[in-house]
Design goal:
The protein has 242 residues and is an all-alpha fold. 83% of the residues lie in helices and 2% in strands. Strand 1 and strand 2 form a beta hairpin. Keywords: Membrane, Mitochondrion, Transmembrane, Transmembrane helix.
Length: 242
């Protein structure tokens, strides 16, 4: 009979902790507003679009809109979580989670507070998923522009850090890729030089115009040569470490 009573006290405490809201009454009413409900649905859909890369099937503006909505959704969740944490602290401090069966049932109250804190922590942690979606979306924009992603590789390195050898090979891969990009720029520069030569032969441009174009291309060529020399030196240094 004693075990059954202990079980009942545990269940009673769990129910009290589960049923007690983690937000104040005014914010609970705010969440029920039709506009906020629609906004929450759109925010959730935006996160899914980014995380599942569904935007690849549509125009790039779908990604832009999804990121904007996700950021607004993140701000909204941050606002809620601030008051959620305050309300959780206030509820525990005021004794709203205490189970009073005349006298105070400390055992049931403990379970009530534990579950209430666990419930609140899970709701606060949900904002991490929103932030993850925003980071993924921004990385996708970088990739769309031909640049390296920033946030997800950083998070991945924090969770699963590379060994020294793996980091070295990754750095080498980046150097070789950058060198390949410079070679492509040289090809484009060669095409530009041929175009300027055609302009010069056409006699449609003044000599000063042609000289300005040639001078600009010469500066670009020197810039590429300096960068290529720097990259080659870094590659040699990296290879000598192996």
């Amino acid at each position: 009979m004693k075990k059954l009573t202990l079980f009942n006290r545990t269940i009673f405490g769990i129910k009290k902790g589960w049923n007690h809201p983690t937000l104040p009454e005014n914010l609970l009413k705010l969440q029920l507003h039709p506009f906020i409900r629609i906004f929450r649905v759109l925010g959730g859909i935006s996160i899914l679009i980014i995380l599942t890369k569904a935007y690849e099937k549509y125009n790039i503006f779908v990604l832009y809109i999804s990121i904007i909505l996700s950021i607004l959704f993140f701000i909204y969740n941050t606002y809620l979580n601030y008051y959620r944490i305050k309300h959780i602290y206030s509820s525990i401090k005021k004794g709203d989670l205490d189970v009073r069966n005349s006298p105070l049932d400390k055992y049931a109250s403990l379970y009530s507070k534990l579950l209430f804190c666990l419930k609140g922590s899970c709701e606060v942690a949900a904002g991490s998923g929103v932030a993850l979606g925003i980071f993924t979306g921004i990385d996708s924009l970088f990739e769309h522009k031909g640049k390296d992603p920033i946030f997800m590789p950083f998070i991945a390195d924090l969770i699963l850090p590379d060994s020294q050898m793996e980091r070295q090979f990754k750095d080498q891969k980046i150097l070789f890729r950058d060198l390949s990009k410079i070679d492509k720029f040289f090809i484009n520069l060669k095409d530009d030089k041929e175009t300027v030569a055609l302009f010069e032969n056409s006699k449609l441009f003044t000599e000063d115009d042609i000289n300005i174009m040639k001078e600009g291309l010469k500066k670009q060529e020197q810039f590429l040569l300096d960068n290529k020399e720097s990259l080659v030196a870094k590659i040699k240094e990296s290879l000598n470490k192996n």
